[in-house]
Protein backbone atom coordinates (compact mmCIF):
# COMPACT_ATOMS: atom_id res chain seq x y z
CA UNK A 1 0.00 0.00 0.00
CA UNK A 2 1.37 3.41 -0.88
CA UNK A 3 2.64 5.83 1.72
CA UNK A 4 1.73 9.48 2.04
CA UNK A 5 4.47 12.08 2.14
CA UNK A 6 3.19 15.44 3.33
CA UNK A 7 4.89 18.53 1.97
CA UNK A 8 4.75 21.31 4.57
CA UNK A 9 6.47 24.06 2.54
CA UNK A 10 3.36 26.22 2.58
CA UNK A 11 3.21 26.30 6.36
CA UNK A 12 6.55 28.09 6.04
CA UNK A 13 5.11 30.25 3.23
CA UNK A 14 2.57 31.66 5.70
CA UNK A 15 5.25 32.14 8.36
CA UNK A 16 7.55 33.94 5.93
CA UNK A 17 4.74 36.35 5.05
CA UNK A 18 5.58 38.04 8.35
CA UNK A 19 9.13 36.70 8.81
CA UNK A 20 8.16 35.55 12.30
CA UNK A 21 7.96 32.18 14.00
CA UNK A 22 4.30 31.34 13.45
CA UNK A 23 2.92 29.02 12.22
CA UNK A 24 5.57 26.67 13.52
CA UNK A 25 6.84 24.21 10.94
CA UNK A 26 7.81 21.57 13.50
CA UNK A 27 4.33 21.63 15.03
CA UNK A 28 2.92 21.20 11.52
CA UNK A 29 5.12 18.13 11.03
CA UNK A 30 3.88 16.62 14.30
CA UNK A 31 0.25 17.25 13.31
CA UNK A 32 0.88 15.74 9.87
CA UNK A 33 2.33 12.66 11.55
CA UNK A 34 -0.69 12.48 13.88
CA UNK A 35 -2.89 12.45 10.79
CA UNK A 36 -0.94 9.54 9.34
CA UNK A 37 1.87 11.09 7.27
CA UNK A 38 4.52 8.48 6.51
CA UNK A 39 7.11 11.09 5.69
CA UNK A 40 7.58 14.83 5.82
CA UNK A 41 8.78 16.62 2.70
CA UNK A 42 10.33 20.07 2.52
CA UNK A 43 11.93 21.91 -0.38
CA UNK A 44 14.91 24.05 0.59
CA UNK A 45 14.90 26.44 -2.34
CA UNK A 46 17.87 28.55 -3.34
CA UNK A 47 15.82 31.74 -2.72
CA UNK A 48 14.60 30.46 0.70
CA UNK A 49 11.08 31.68 -0.07
CA UNK A 50 9.54 29.29 2.47
CA UNK A 51 11.61 26.57 4.17
CA UNK A 52 14.83 27.79 5.83
CA UNK A 53 17.97 25.82 6.59
CA UNK A 54 17.14 25.85 10.32
CA UNK A 55 13.78 24.18 9.57
CA UNK A 56 15.53 21.30 7.83
CA UNK A 57 17.90 20.79 10.74
CA UNK A 58 15.15 20.87 13.38
CA UNK A 59 12.91 18.52 11.39
CA UNK A 60 15.79 16.10 10.90
CA UNK A 61 16.32 15.87 14.64
CA UNK A 62 12.72 15.82 15.72
CA UNK A 63 10.28 14.10 13.39
CA UNK A 64 9.18 10.54 14.10
CA UNK A 65 8.83 9.54 10.45
CA UNK A 66 11.17 10.09 7.49
CA UNK A 67 12.50 13.38 6.12
CA UNK A 68 12.45 13.79 2.35
CA UNK A 69 14.47 16.83 1.28
CA UNK A 70 13.58 18.27 -2.11
CA UNK A 71 16.49 20.15 -3.60
CA UNK A 72 18.23 21.35 -6.71
CA UNK A 73 21.53 19.66 -7.55
CA UNK A 74 23.63 22.69 -6.65
CA UNK A 75 26.77 22.84 -4.55
CA UNK A 76 25.34 24.91 -1.70
CA UNK A 77 22.25 22.77 -1.12
CA UNK A 78 24.21 19.57 -1.64
CA UNK A 79 26.59 20.56 1.16
CA UNK A 80 23.63 21.14 3.50
CA UNK A 81 22.07 17.79 2.57
CA UNK A 82 25.34 15.97 3.22
CA UNK A 83 25.52 17.57 6.64
CA UNK A 84 21.88 17.04 7.61
CA UNK A 85 21.57 13.52 6.12
CA UNK A 86 17.82 13.33 5.40
CA UNK A 87 16.24 9.92 4.83
CA UNK A 88 15.90 10.72 1.13
CA UNK A 89 16.81 13.54 -1.23
CA UNK A 90 14.55 14.27 -4.18
CA UNK A 91 16.37 16.18 -6.89
CA UNK A 92 14.16 18.69 -8.67
CA UNK A 93 14.70 21.39 -11.29
CA UNK A 94 14.51 24.89 -9.86
CA UNK A 95 13.95 28.25 -11.49
CA UNK A 96 13.85 31.42 -9.44
CA UNK A 97 10.79 32.93 -11.13
CA UNK A 98 8.57 29.85 -10.98
CA UNK A 99 5.64 29.69 -8.56
CA UNK A 100 6.24 25.98 -8.03
CA UNK A 101 8.37 23.26 -9.61
CA UNK A 102 7.58 23.24 -13.32
CA UNK A 103 8.25 20.00 -15.16
CA UNK A 104 10.58 17.17 -14.31
CA UNK A 105 14.37 17.13 -14.41
CA UNK A 106 15.97 17.27 -17.83
CA UNK A 107 18.42 14.41 -17.41
CA UNK A 108 20.18 15.13 -20.70
CA UNK A 109 20.99 18.81 -20.18
CA UNK A 110 21.75 18.35 -16.48
CA UNK A 111 23.28 14.90 -16.74
CA UNK A 112 26.63 15.70 -15.18
CA UNK A 113 25.33 17.77 -12.24
CA UNK A 114 22.67 15.15 -11.44
CA UNK A 115 25.13 12.27 -11.78
CA UNK A 116 27.59 13.99 -9.44
CA UNK A 117 24.86 14.75 -6.87
CA UNK A 118 23.58 11.16 -6.95
CA UNK A 119 27.09 9.87 -6.46
CA UNK A 120 27.85 12.14 -3.49
CA UNK A 121 24.50 11.63 -1.76
CA UNK A 122 24.24 7.88 -2.24
CA UNK A 123 27.87 7.37 -1.24
CA UNK A 124 26.91 9.15 1.99
CA UNK A 125 24.04 6.69 2.45
CA UNK A 126 21.24 9.03 1.33
CA UNK A 127 18.98 7.43 -1.29
CA UNK A 128 18.17 9.73 -4.19
CA UNK A 129 14.86 10.10 -5.98
CA UNK A 130 14.69 12.02 -9.28
CA UNK A 131 11.63 14.11 -10.05
CA UNK A 132 10.94 13.37 -13.71
CA UNK A 133 8.20 13.67 -16.28
CA UNK A 134 6.21 10.44 -16.58
CA UNK A 135 7.96 9.22 -19.71
CA UNK A 136 9.64 5.90 -20.27
CA UNK A 137 12.76 7.60 -21.68
CA UNK A 138 13.15 9.71 -18.52
CA UNK A 139 12.67 6.61 -16.35
CA UNK A 140 15.37 4.79 -18.33
CA UNK A 141 17.73 7.75 -17.96
CA UNK A 142 17.09 7.86 -14.19
CA UNK A 143 17.80 4.14 -13.88
CA UNK A 144 20.97 4.56 -15.94
CA UNK A 145 22.15 7.30 -13.58
CA UNK A 146 21.84 4.91 -10.64
CA UNK A 147 19.11 6.72 -8.67
CA UNK A 148 17.23 4.50 -6.23
CA UNK A 149 13.86 6.04 -6.98
CA UNK A 150 11.93 8.32 -9.27
CA UNK A 151 9.05 10.64 -8.47
CA UNK A 152 6.73 10.92 -11.46
CA UNK A 153 5.49 14.46 -12.08
CA UNK A 154 1.70 14.38 -11.88
CA UNK A 155 1.14 18.00 -12.90
CA UNK A 156 -0.20 17.14 -16.36
CA UNK A 157 -2.50 14.52 -14.87
CA UNK A 158 -3.74 17.06 -12.31
CA UNK A 159 -4.42 19.59 -15.08
CA UNK A 160 -6.11 17.03 -17.36
CA UNK A 161 -7.26 14.11 -15.21
CA UNK A 162 -8.48 11.21 -17.28
CA UNK A 163 -7.50 7.99 -18.98
CA UNK A 164 -4.82 9.45 -21.28
CA UNK A 165 -2.72 10.91 -18.46
CA UNK A 166 -3.42 7.94 -16.18
CA UNK A 167 -2.19 5.64 -18.92
CA UNK A 168 0.95 7.74 -19.36
CA UNK A 169 1.64 7.47 -15.62
CA UNK A 170 0.87 3.73 -15.65
CA UNK A 171 3.43 3.12 -18.42
CA UNK A 172 6.10 5.17 -16.65
CA UNK A 173 5.31 3.39 -13.36
CA UNK A 174 5.71 -0.02 -14.96
CA UNK A 175 8.94 1.05 -16.66
CA UNK A 176 10.28 2.20 -13.30
CA UNK A 177 9.33 -1.00 -11.51
CA UNK A 178 10.81 -3.10 -14.34
CA UNK A 179 14.07 -1.16 -13.97
CA UNK A 180 14.13 -1.95 -10.24
CA UNK A 181 13.32 1.59 -9.14
CA UNK A 182 11.08 2.66 -6.29
CA UNK A 183 8.39 4.83 -7.85
CA UNK A 184 6.78 7.83 -6.16
CA UNK A 185 4.40 10.40 -7.61
CA UNK A 186 3.47 13.96 -6.83
CA UNK A 187 2.60 17.53 -7.77
CA UNK A 188 -0.85 19.01 -8.06
CA UNK A 189 -2.56 16.04 -6.41
CA UNK A 190 -5.72 16.86 -4.49
CA UNK A 191 -8.76 15.24 -2.89
CA UNK A 192 -10.36 14.62 -6.30
CA UNK A 193 -7.50 13.31 -8.38
CA UNK A 194 -5.35 11.38 -5.86
CA UNK A 195 -7.82 8.50 -5.44
CA UNK A 196 -7.95 7.35 -9.08
CA UNK A 197 -4.15 7.52 -9.31
CA UNK A 198 -3.74 5.55 -6.09
CA UNK A 199 -5.73 2.73 -7.66
CA UNK A 200 -2.76 1.96 -9.92
CA UNK A 201 -0.83 -0.65 -7.94
CA UNK A 202 2.91 -0.13 -7.65
CA UNK A 203 3.47 3.40 -6.35
CA UNK A 204 5.45 3.53 -3.11
CA UNK A 205 4.57 7.06 -2.05
CA UNK A 206 2.54 10.10 -3.01
CA UNK A 207 3.98 13.49 -2.10
CA UNK A 208 1.25 16.04 -1.56
CA UNK A 209 1.42 19.56 -0.18
CA UNK A 210 -0.70 22.45 -1.39
CA UNK A 211 -4.09 20.69 -1.34
CA UNK A 212 -3.53 19.36 2.17
CA UNK A 213 -2.44 22.71 3.59
CA UNK A 214 -5.42 24.43 1.92
CA UNK A 215 -7.87 21.93 3.41
CA UNK A 216 -6.15 22.21 6.79
CA UNK A 217 -7.29 25.85 6.99
CA UNK A 218 -10.85 24.60 7.35
CA UNK A 219 -10.60 21.21 9.06
CA UNK A 220 -7.18 21.29 10.73
CA UNK A 221 -4.00 19.59 9.59
CA UNK A 222 -4.52 16.28 11.41
CA UNK A 223 -7.90 15.84 9.73
CA UNK A 224 -6.71 17.04 6.31
CA UNK A 225 -3.85 14.55 6.34
CA UNK A 226 -6.07 11.71 7.62
CA UNK A 227 -8.49 12.31 4.76
CA UNK A 228 -5.72 12.22 2.17
CA UNK A 229 -4.23 9.13 3.76
CA UNK A 230 -7.58 7.38 3.34
CA UNK A 231 -7.57 8.33 -0.33
CA UNK A 232 -4.09 7.09 -1.14
CA UNK A 233 -4.21 4.05 1.15
CA UNK A 234 -7.73 2.84 0.67
CA UNK A 235 -8.14 3.53 -3.00
CA UNK A 236 -10.40 6.44 -3.43
CA UNK A 237 -12.86 6.14 -0.59
CA UNK A 238 -15.02 9.20 -0.30
CA UNK A 239 -13.12 11.39 2.21
CA UNK A 240 -16.44 12.41 3.73
CA UNK A 241 -16.93 8.79 4.74
CA UNK A 242 -13.83 8.50 6.86
CA UNK A 243 -15.21 9.35 10.26
CA UNK A 244 -15.00 6.35 12.55
CA UNK A 245 -12.64 4.76 10.07
CA UNK A 246 -9.63 7.03 10.36
CA UNK A 247 -6.12 5.89 11.19
CA UNK A 248 -5.38 5.80 14.92
CA UNK A 249 -3.77 8.94 16.30
CA UNK A 250 -0.16 8.55 17.28
N1 LIG B 1 6.70 16.66 -5.43
C1 LIG B 1 7.61 17.56 -5.84
C2 LIG B 1 8.89 17.06 -6.42
C3 LIG B 1 7.37 18.94 -5.72
O1 LIG B 1 8.29 19.83 -6.15
C4 LIG B 1 6.18 19.37 -5.11
C5 LIG B 1 5.93 20.83 -4.91
O2 LIG B 1 6.83 21.35 -3.99
C6 LIG B 1 5.27 18.39 -4.68
C7 LIG B 1 5.54 17.05 -4.87
C8 LIG B 1 3.99 18.76 -4.01
O3 LIG B 1 3.18 19.41 -4.92
P1 LIG B 1 1.82 20.05 -4.43
O4 LIG B 1 2.16 21.11 -3.44
O5 LIG B 1 1.20 20.57 -5.67
O6 LIG B 1 1.02 18.93 -3.79
* Strands, count: 8
Cofactors and ligands: pyridoxine-5'-phosphate
Strand order of the largest sheet: 1-2-3-4-5-6-7-8
Low-confidence stretches: 243-250
Question: What string gives the helices and strands in order?
Answer: EHHEHEHEHEHEHHEHEHH
Instruction: Specify the overall morphology.
Output: globular
Which structural category do the helix and sheet elements fall into? alpha/beta
Q: Ends: how far apart? A: 19 Å
Structure write-up:
This protein has helices at 9-16, 25-34, 53-62, 75-84, 111-123, 136-145, 155-159, 163-178, 194-198, 210-219, 221-233; strands at residues 3-7, 39-43, 66-71, 88-91, 128-132, 149-153, 182-186, 205-208. With 250 residues, it is of the alpha/beta class. An eight-stranded parallel beta barrel has the order 1-2-3-4-5-6-7-8, surrounded by eight helices. Strand 2 (39-43), helix 3 (53-62) and strand 3 (66-71) form a beta-alpha-beta unit. The structure holds pyridoxine-5'-phosphate. The site of pyridoxine-5'-phosphate (PXP) has 19 residues, from strand 8 and helix 10.
In short:
By secondary structure, the protein is α/β, with parallel strands linked by helices.
Feature tags:
11 helices, single chain, eight-stranded parallel beta barrel, 250 residues, disordered C terminus, alpha/beta, binds pyridoxine-5'-phosphate
Amino acid sequence: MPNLGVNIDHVATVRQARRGSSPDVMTAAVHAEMGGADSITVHLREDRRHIQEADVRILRQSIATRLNLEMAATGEILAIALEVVPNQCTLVPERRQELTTEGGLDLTTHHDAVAAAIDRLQTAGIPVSLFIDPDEAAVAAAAHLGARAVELHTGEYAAHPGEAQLDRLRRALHAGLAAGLTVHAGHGLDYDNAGPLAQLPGFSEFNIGHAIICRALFVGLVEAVAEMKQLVRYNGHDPRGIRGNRPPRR
